[in-house]
Write a structure and sequence with these properties.
single chain, alpha+beta, three-stranded antiparallel beta sheet, two-stranded antiparallel sheet, 41% helix, globular, nuclease activity, nucleus, nuclease, hydrolase activity
Length: 242
Amino acid sequence: MDGKHVRITCPDKGGSHHFNYKSYHSIILFALTDANYKFIYIDVGTNGRIGDSGVYNKSKLKKCLADNSILNIPAGKNLPGANIATPYVVLADDAFPLSYNVMKPYPLKNITREEKIYNYRLSRGRRIVESSFGILASRFRVFLTTINLCPEKVTKIVLAACTIHNLLIDRRKHLYTCHEIISRSRKGHTFLDVLSHEELQELQTLTTQTRTVGNRHGREIRENFKIFYNGAGKVPWQEEYA
């Protein structure tokens, strides 16, 4: 999961309500994607002053993850080479709180080699959500402009674009997504690489407002993944890229 700023003009009598850390007005598109670049949860319309964790903390997604009876997430399974069940998790960046079903990177201060490997593998998995935003912006290029409409109308545009994005992936994925860029993503790049530097300025990642530590269960599960990525689950190239 991740979030992006959608640039807008200053709303009438809006003041600094939508003014973000990059010094422009925006609303936020916060999303969770699956492995096929589809948006499976979106939260649109929060003012741009709020960071990743702020959007997540007020979202229905956080409540649903806390109450598994709503999402019906499958029971955890043992990782290869392990005898402890590990839950299915959502991958997030450092802005989000570590928890039973949300994994984030280890802090960089005093980081060990094994933790660097874990961070690399987590980052590689998160390229899917980055590429999902990149596909959306490259096909619906209104996201690479400043939208001169009120926040309510911009919210409807974003919702419509995300819906059409999912529909086209279901029905015309080979045409809608670029095979060459997807291949580059698998080799270590993201779909955002296809956008120019100027275009990327229109699609900014949210800022980390506060550093979150996470709860005990989250730290234990992260440790299980770290052991797996450095043992039975290691891949040949991770030492080079980490």
